Amino acid sequence: MPVIPLLRFAAALLTVILLHALGVWLVPEFARSIDLFLVLTVIYALGGDTMVGLLVGLVAGLTNDVLTGSLFALHGFVDTLVGYGMARLAQRLVIDRVSGAFLVTGVASALQQVLLAGLVLLLLPQPELPEPVWIAIRAAGTGMAAAAVLLASRNLRTNLAERRQRKAQRLHLD
Amino acid sequence: MNERRTAWFLVAALAGQLLMLSIQAPAAEDGGGSNFLESSMLRGVAPLTRGVSSLMESVRGFGDDWKGREEMAAENQALRQRVEEMELEVMRLSELETEVERLAEAMDYSRASGRGLRVADVVYADHSSWFRTLLLYVGERPASLNQPVISDDGLVGRVVEVVPHYAKVQLITDRAAAVGAMIRRTRRQGVVRSGPRGLELAFLPQQADVRVGDRVVTSGIDGIYPRGLPVGIVTSVERGQELFYDITLEPAVDFGVLDQLYLLEDTTPGPAGGGGGDAPPADGSGDGARNGAAGGAADSAAGSAGGDSADGSADSAADSSGARP
Known about the structure:
heterodimer; A: 174 residues; 82% helix; elongated; B: 325 residues; alpha+beta; 6-stranded antiparallel beta barrel; 12 strands
């Protein structure tokens, strides 16, 4: 088992938990509007490795379940499916643009909520279903969050590469 | 081959989780079946949410401190004065309590239950999303399953998951929650649950006398919540399709501003959290003597919701019938 990617994932999950808790503390509607756990799942799944996609979906979903009041493993089940599905999609589709990431994550979020609603309908006698407008808001919010993370990581990578290049040039001149 | 192995793993992961879900689903009405994995993960996640909550509280506290030192000093002065007044009131009430106890003893009268309050901090509250949650930091002494949770204004929910130092609460606005309740004015009983239109009072027959503005309190028949905790106020009464009214309630508690709650503890010997004894009174004033120290403490917590003194006093008399000789 590779240690560095595992540590990186643990750090990412920790960040997501902290950001989620902070978001809910600051804005009561945060959890209703953005699913950071799904953002993490989709970003990892977009790498195209199905095993990574489903494992990240499983862990992120179960962590989300701890912070929700419904049945445990509800998000775990759905996020596992979504993570796997997104990884399969990424194997066939190159999603390079930020707008692409927004679209894919938005669709993944809508799909996740529909699957959750289906499961809840199957399992609970008197289920509460989300309003369509909130499904759309959450899909858009989650999509935007994924696009923002992708954009930020790309900028960071570019900046680091440039700095490394500049450093290398300076060494070369000396 | 690798993809095939992944597909098998996917099937196994999904099947395992589906099994876990199907085991919990029948128990959902009773607060759901807790499992080792959830408890373990909650142990890891809850301290993080508490960390964020504490950090934000201290940031807010620092800001407030910076802004209004003078305001706070004046407020502190006023509060000190209020504490002194209240201490005098407590002394007067404890005198009354002693007197009542002496009289009760003379009449061979025993109290149905004693209830104490324990403060718990809200470390994570998501009341708005589809799946509502509340995480409490309860301190060293663990909470117990099904322990009622109240705020200053009324009933919040009950404990459904317990790990060291933390407890997960099922809110009364959760779809899986149901509370035995009654109209305080008429004592007519029904069940409060969350429906498409918000909090509803169900199973009230159309012959019942119910009006907009009626206060709804717990009835104690569910064996979880004690009698008399404020649940909400009737906001609409419509004739339903069957024999019952369609009644909607405005919750007594504003779930958006919860930061400190109280765990209602059974101070009588026996299993904690259960029993359908009497609640600390919902009425605002004058009940401390009747309900003793535990009730008196709860008065200040759950009492403020019962504002209408006229009907409150009438109900106080009815409430006391719960304490059986």
